[in-house]
Amino acid sequence: MALPESRFGCRWRNAGLGLYRADASSNGLLEEWCQCWRHAVSVTENNFGAHNCLGCTWFTQGRWDEAIREFQEVVRLKPGFAEAYNSLGRSFSASKRLDEAIACYQKAVEIQPDYVTAHNSLASLLLQKGQVDQVIIHCQKALELEPDNIIAHDNLGLALSLKGHFDEALVHFQKAVELQPDNGMAQLSLGSFLSRLGRTDEAIRHLHSAVLLQPDDAETHNNFGGALLSKGNVDEAVQQFQEAARLLPDRFEIRRNLGHALLKQGSLDAAIREFQTALILKPDNAVASNDLVIAVGMKEKQPQSPVHLTKP
Predict the structure, then answer these.
(1) Residue 191 near residue 227, CB atoms below 8 Å
(2) In whole angstroms, what is the distance from residue 128 CA to residue 131 CA?
(3) Helices and strands (H, E) in the chain, number of each type
(4) Are the CB atoms for 189 and 157 separated by under 8 Å?
(5) Which are the contacts of 173, defined by CB distance < 8 A and separation ≥ 6?
(6) Averaged pLDDT, 197-217
(7) Alpha-carbon span 208 to 186, nearest angstrom
(8) pLDDT value of residue 39
């Protein structure tokens, strides 16, 4: 029979929390944390704190299903706990269960209307769902609460650009970079938007900063490659697309972009291989099929090297 939460149960929960905070990156302490929090759950009743700590542990370890189970228990025990709904939303989002994540974030801001993190998370997912007007509402609310929040500025810039309000969008992208010039996401968004506007030199400068700040991000290399290719810097563009493909080998758009850059470089065999890879990823894509036909046609038109026969 589980006991109501007592000082004893709290002690075990807090012991686990202390270990967690002592070295949150150490896998070696995971079992110790779990033992403390599981014990707290077993000897107490309705111990939402222990379930919450277990959920955070599983989330840190990428064990989304376990995290979801624990956070669901937290919101059952304490339905007015906005932070738990936010954590549950993050876990659903990590599991690609976007509709359930959106519902959790909506509940979080319903309980706590000034919860900026939840507004931002909700805006990010609504952006993926194409609900641009709702994105704008939540970003504006976040900025009303925290005028210097760069995530809200970035999301609002993206939403406004999708609505065709380019001047307003640029203001928010620039503000994000002004607030945190060492933020790779902000540099990427501004550089990508400037590239879209045809302001290539400015775009290259910001995208180069983004690559330095987040060298392991495939999208950053891909967008930088696109700007370099527009400028005519073909060899540099090829290098950026190759790095993007190394980081994210199964992304169709990256393979196709690399193929085009190689085509402009004159590396026809390599371009053909990239277009073939793109077609493997999307076999029914007519555009990629046409890319391959063009590249093969260019290869066939190349003059053949003369064959020199030697006398036996």
Answers:
(1) yes
(2) 8
(3) 17, 2
(4) yes
(5) 153, 154, 157, 186, 189, 190, 193
(6) 97
(7) 12
(8) 59
pLDDT at 25 (0 to 100): 45
Residue 186: closest CA among 146, 232, 149? 149
Say if CB 17 and CB 56 are below 8 A apart: no
Helix (H) or strand (E) holding 45: strand 44-45
Which residues are registered as beta bridge partners of 45?
Answer: 4
The Cα 66–Cα 37 span in angstroms is 14
| Total Cβ atoms within 10 A of residue 239 | 16
User: What average pLDDT does this structure show over 250-272?
Assistant: 96
Q: Considering Cα of 194, then 196, then 201, then 207, what sign does the dihedral take?
A: positive
Q: Please state whether beta strands 3-4 and 44-45 pair in parallel, antiparallel, or not at all (unpaired).
A: parallel
pLDDT tens-digit readout, 62-104: 889 989 998 998 899 999 999 999 999 999 999 999 999 999 9
Both tokens of residue 216?
């392991």
